[in-house]
């Protein structure tokens, strides 16, 4: 289907746009190969079902499978294309929503029958190629029935259908050996509080999550549950606004022992954060699970889902991931789409190569930074006042307001030291350029 040969590693001196310059799967960085560190994944939706449409124009993508008229023939052709692309790019994993891989048909029953057919075909391709499922999920946001939400809907019948969809998506994720299952609340939010019972909606959302946990135990699904934060689009206020919000939700409803974060770059920036911030917050709370690797256009206020090419972002992302001990069951999923003007099939290869090289370069730089303890040493010195004296007593919980007040009154002036932000940014640049 693709007139592209196997993509090979040619090194940073290569000028071949259809070759890796930095991503060498077998190269060892620290104690793992690049392939083991990065765990790249292809996003089924943007790669196989994206049409290139936007609110102002029709789709532009040229895809061979669009020549079929029967929806199931299109779905089968997409499976063939997906595995050809993953093999040629040496991408070990893929991710999907249920509605990405099979047509929904005219009823839930027909949808589930179509899913069974495609799942069986996928299973054969996975056996032949060695490719694995990073995670599956249910599309509980596109169908018109989800106009008021899915697990936070005001319609109990819709809530039941949403549960049926998630149940089936969990079944096929387990059938395909998926290592995670993701919840993305595409319409779990509200437009106005004038007609919203937020407490009921949050309680119902938590109940939905607990039922998923119970069902996973029942069927023996041992994958990691992930929640993907997003601040807006399509609803004005999403209940999974950012990592901090999701952590609060999980802890409030006693779900934090079952779920981790699937953090997306573009969602982080839409929430007013950097990707590093979201990864760092998840990591220090023991909840960093997986990453949707993309980037947004900082001049645009919506989710553009571009392929990640910003080396600063990929470096600091890998810095946090390495400090996390890796992504474990998670991975770097390219939840990214080629631009509307990049409509030829070969553009899918150029885009993935750019993203894979960007993270490979980021991995190598982050590993060197951690080996040299550039920021760790500086940070440790910056907080050294808590290693002895009154600082250590604060850390050890041996003080109260009275004792701190008495100590403060004995001080003869305060001496702060510079945070040296610009110096550290310069050092980071030197590591990236070298």
Secondary structure elements and pairings:
Layout: E1 8-9, E2 19-20, E3 28-29, E4 32-33, H1 34-38, E5 40-43, H2 44-49, H3 71-89, E6 93-97, H4 98-101, H5 108-129, E7 132-137, H6 156-175, E8 180-183, E9 189-190, H7 198-219, E10 224-227, E11 237-238, H8 243-252, E12 259-264, H9 265-270, H10 275-284, E13 288-292, H11 311-323, E14 332-334, H12 346-372, H13 374-382, H14 389-395, H15 401-409, H16 421-433
Parallel strand pairs: 1-2, 5-6, 5-14, 6-7, 7-8, 8-10, 10-12, 12-13, 13-14
Antiparallel strand pairs: 3-4, 9-11
Helix pairs in contact: 3-5, 5-6, 6-7, 10-11, 11-12
Question: What does this protein structure show overall?
Answer:
The protein has 16 helices and 14 strands. Helix 6 packs parallel to helix 7 and helix 10 runs parallel beside helix 11. The mean pLDDT is 97.
Task: Provide the descriptors you would attach to this structure in a database record.
alpha/beta, 11% strand, 16 helices, two-stranded parallel sheet, eight-stranded parallel β-barrel, 47% helix, 434 residues
